[in-house]
Design brief:
The complex is a heterodimer.
Chain A lengths: L3 E4 L2 E4 L5 E7 L5 E8 L3 E10 L2 E4 L7 E2 L9 E3 L8 E8 L6 E2 L3 E5 L1
Parallel strand pairs in A: 2-11
Antiparallel strand pairs in A: 1-3, 3-8, 4-5, 4-9, 5-6, 7-8, 9-10, 9-11
Chain B lengths: L3 E4 L2 E5 L4 E7 L5 E7 L5 E6 L3 E5 L2 E6 L4 E6 L8 E8 L6 E3 L3 E6 L1
Parallel strand pairs in B: 2-11
Antiparallel strand pairs in B: 1-3, 3-8, 4-5, 4-9, 6-7, 7-8, 9-10, 9-11
The chains are: A mainly beta, B mainly beta.
């Protein structure tokens, strides 16, 4: 089944404890992105990648890192999480920047 | 970046009614998509429609790129249509997407 998977789906952590949210797609898509969704603000892009080793900033990249070492994986790294990074996170992929396919979301709480 | 405005922010309908959701954007775009987020949070792509008109069952969409707007039409609404509808656009950099704040649709039986 063609899909985008994210792990974990739910995470509660404490301020300053490094964490990684994984994202993987099995559709051989070139483009991948990370978004955060906050009430009343819609979705905001954090980082996107147009190919392996090619990444660029979106609306809200501060406090996040990404890497694209393989086409199928695009992990999101929070090196020192803070409470203002509490949010719902979505990973998405597309073949060539066209139709986006979203993962199920990761709900992160930083205490 | 590109500004995206959606209207109305909230819409309440009775089952069977028709509705039109609007998306205005501030610059020329090469990518425009409509998404539905269901009450469980899942995001589903409805249309990839940088220009022209498309139809899929009870849903259709039209983008008039020269006038910088897109419309999503929902006919004969069903309770399963409830959720938030988002419009997203990209300019010359296709992967750089800008989302609107969405239209919250509630359909009552």
């Amino acid at each position: 089944e063609a899909q985008v998977t994210q792990n974990p789906r739910y995470l509660i952590t404490v301020t300053g404890k490094k964490l990684t949210v994984t994202c993987s797609q099995n559709m051989n898509h070139e483009y991948m992105s990370w978004y955060r969704q906050d009430p009343g603000l819609g979705l905001r892009q954090i980082y996107y990648s147009m190919n392996v080793e090619v990444t660029d900033k979106g609306d809200v990249p501060e406090g996040y890192k990404v890497s694209r070492k393989e086409k199928r994986n695009f992990p999101l790294i929070l090196e020192s999480p803070s409470p203002n990074q509490t949010s719902l996170y979505f990973c998405a992929s597309s073949l060539a920047g066209d139709t986006q396919y979203f993962g199920p979301g990761t709900r992160l709480t930083v205490l | 970046g590109i500004q995206v405005e959606q209207s109305p922010p909230d819409l309440i309908l009775q089952e069977g009614a028709n509705s039109t959701l609007r998306c205005n954007f501030s610059d020329s775009v090469n990518n425009l998509q409509w998404f539905h987020q269901n009450p469980w949070g899942q995001l589903i792509n409805l249309f990839y429609i940088p220009s022209g008109t498309k139809q899929n069952g009870r849903l259709s969409a039209t983008t008039v790129a020269t006038e910088r707007y897109s419309l999503l039409y929902i006919s004969s609404s069903q309770t399963t249509d409830s959720g938030v509808y988002f419009c997203a656009v990209a300019g010359s950099t296709l992967g750089r997407l800008y989302f609107g704040r969405g239209t919250q649709l509630t359909v009552w039986p």
